[in-house]
Amino acid sequence: MTDSSSKHLKRRWYDLEHEVSQAFMVLESFPGEILYIVTSGLVEYAEREFRVREQQMNRRSLGSSAVLALFKSEQRRRKNDRVPPLYKITNYMMILTETSRQVMATSIMELVGFIAEYLKECKTYEQSVEMDDVGSLTSSYLRRGKNEARRFMENIRLRFIDEVSKKQICEESIASKGARLLSGRQDDMRLGSL
Questions:
Q1: Are 144 and 114 in contact (CB under 8 A)?
Q2: Coil, helix or strand for 142?
Q3: pLDDT digits (tens, 9 = 90+) for 28-49
Q4: How far apart are CA 136 and CA 118, in angstroms?
Q5: Alpha-carbon dihedral of residues 128, 85, 146, 129, nearest 10 degrees?
Q6: How far apart, in whole angstroms, are the C-alpha atoms of residue 89 and residue 100?
Q7: For 69-127, how does the pLDDT look when each residue is reduced to its tens digit (9 = 90+)?
C-alpha cells in the first residue's frame, strides 16, 4: 500500500490509534437517541476525570492546521457533527494525552458492552428499550464503575423476569377463565338439547 492510499484511508485524527478508532466506530453504530445519551455521559466523564475544560482554557491556540482541520471536518457533515455530544467528545479526546485517550477508549468499549447487554436483555425478555434505563446504566458505569453497572444490569434482569412472570400469570388466568366460560357454555348447550 502506498503512502497516498494509506493516507486516504486514515482521514480522521483518531484513525491512527486503533483502540480509539474502534471506540468511535462502535459509538457511531448506536441509534440517535442512545448515541446522544451515551455521548452526553462521556462528555461529563471527560470533564470530571480529565478536566478537559481546563485544558481547553489553558491552550492559547490549536494552531492554524488544527483549526482548518476542524473547519473541514464540520463541512463534511459526518454523523458525529450532527450529534453535539459526539462532536464534543471527539474534540475532547483530541486534546487528551495518548494515555488518557486510551483510558477513555477502554471506558467507551466497556460501557458499550453494558449497553449491548441491556439491549440483548430487552430482546430476550421482549421488553421495550427505555431511554431512562440507558441513561441510568451510562451514569452508573461512568460515575461508579463496572461493579455498579453489573448490579444495575442484574436489577434490570430481575425486573424483566418479574414483568414476564406477571404477564404469564395474567395470560394463564385469562386462558383458564376462557376455558371455564367455554365449558359452561357447552354444558348449557347440552342441557338445552335435552
A1: no
A2: helix
A3: 999 999 999 999 999 999 999 9
A4: 11
A5: 0
A6: 13
A7: 656 655 665 656 678 999 889 888 988 889 999 999 999 999 999 999 999 999 999 99
